[in-house]
Specification:
heterodimer, A: about 325 residues, mainly alpha, Ubiquitin-like (UB roll), Fumarate Reductase Iron-sulfur Protein, Chain B, domain 2, 2 domains, 3-stranded antiparallel beta sheet, two-stranded antiparallel ribbon, 18 helices, 5 strands, about 40% helix, B: about 290 residues, alpha/beta, Glutathione S-transferase Yfyf (Class Pi), Chain A, domain 2, Rossmann fold, 4-stranded parallel beta sheet, 15 helices, 8 strands, binds iron/sulfur cluster, binds FE2/S2 (inorganic) cluster
Chain lengths: ~325, ~290
Amino acid sequence: MDAPEWACLLDVLDLIKDKHDGTLAYRKSCRMMICGSCGMRMDGRAVLACKERMKPIVDAGHVPVISAMGNMPVLKDLVVDMSPFWGKIRSVKPWLDPGYDEVAEKERIVSQQQMNVIHKEALCIMCGCCVSECNSMEADPDFMGPAALAKGFRFVGDARDQADVERLNTLNEEHGIWDCTRCYFCNERCPKGVDPRDAIAKLGAESVKQGVDHDMGAKHAKWFIRSTETTGWLRETELVPKTQGIIEAIKQTGFALKLARKGKVPPPFPPHVAADVKEARALRELVGEQGRDGALGIVQGEHALGRIEFTEEAGARENAPEIQPGVEPPPAEG
Amino acid sequence: MQRVAYYTGCLAALSAKELNTSTKALAPKLGLELVELESVTCCGAGDIHEAEPDYYLHLNARILAYAEETGCETLMTICNVCTLNLRQANWQLKNDEELRARVNQNLETVGVPPYSGNVDVRHLLWLIAEGDGYERLKEAAHKGLKGLRIAPFYGCQILRPSKILGFEDPDRPWSLEAIIQACGGEPIDYPAKIKCCGFPIIQAREEVALSELIQPIEQAQEAGADAMVTPCPLCHLSLDAWQLKLRKATGKDFQMPILHLSQLIGVAAGLEESELKFKRHVVSVDPVTSKLEV
Ligand code: SF4
Ligand code: SF4
Ligand code: FES
């Protein structure tokens, strides 16, 4: 099939529908990466069809496989049923709760600095690409997932919103932020640079800051902090009781004993202590007084991370040894 | 010999001691002189990044500063999570002078040398998958693996987010396969090799984690792998130790030996059992070693 040099995947699909098969079903609207309609998989990766240029692929002699996004039921061809996706978005109450009803007489100005906190999350076009390969959602379809959680932070982090503690409590429930397995597929796939996994980490940081730390995930995280302050290294053996509680830990005794026989349960005494660990303790105390706590600790690094070009280090690939493991690797399923 | 600062991370010093001993025994054979760091702590895993991110940044800056003090250009990691944490902090410190100035002031206040941004964080896997390292690997792996069928398992945080890791295509990685081939093994292909082992949530959400863990093990088994190899001790713990729970939960008799990267190469390079320490594995590695003895 012939297509112009500038064609993107969506143009090619239009040509196919026009000239070969009028029944082909896919969603589209804006053609410019803002409506979020055209999410689909190319070689197993979720992409926006209107963002993917086809020339480099054709030049490489590669024939890509196009399929529907994952983690959502397929309705027809490339069209998936997004209703569970919208349900999860709705569940985070994606509207501002300013804590007052009266119309203000004067405009309330929000500073640029305050808006920077939610700048990335506000870029979301709700295309669903991040959800397509989410490993936790594949394992637990009820997991709220990257898009809804990023939307959650868009409001928790909004300086005008007054409902953050209430929101954080909801987001800390089962299937919420602590279900995320940190596979980073969402960051990898998002075509708009939202980095949903980072938004989830921001929610975790805000939860701990605001004392919403009853979940096992938060307790697990806090034990790492305690470890670095006391011995410097993770106090691995105590991690289970500190995360799950003593009762659960006792129920796990059989499993623990099997691991212990293999030396996988290092005795906590004498502790493995890093030299100069008091420096780490002093650092934590010091930064605790500097007001970059909670999500700000992540936001402060975004300026630098935004400058990374993917190609910077990837150049190393050019002199990689030439091997073809297997014949044709199976498409990444995500 | 290339001098590299060596960051063990927590697990290699604790439950995965076999990773530390095999890495240390292997390094000279691969032309690497490991400079151990005394004063460093845990990188915080994903946990401190998620709970107290500003403290995470400072902890990692402190590790980078002590690595820089050794005069080495490279800080070598042997864990996916350490690699992502340190590289992420490193990018932030290198590319934002204001941020680095603040962090350095804090480091100096507590008696840590400031960090000037001259360290590159690289996983052992990357040091030997290409270039000189790869040439030396081919020489070192003289005993071979007798065509053993090995399933590479990358795990997540050595591939994604690729803008921070960036060594290879996160959807079509090749480095482990290259190493398996150089060692005389046969790489097995299966879709879940780039997916999650479930470890980060294995304590807080065991059921979800186990449904993730089963995929790579089951697929590797179905593809006829003799063993799996991983560059990450957390993936190792999950694939090896939690395989017990997977057996119990599914009633299926999984018996998949899981090797650390340093052990796989170590076997091909003729390391001793005292260095490989296969006895510390939960799932027996005997089927692998006996195949090699034949
Ligand atoms: S976070 Fe990114 S990938 Fe996910 S829905 Fe929003 S724009 Fe799409
Ligand atoms: S990092 Fe978390 S939210 Fe993102 S894709 Fe993985 S499991 Fe899903
Ligand atoms: S058509 Fe609107 S995002 Fe692609």
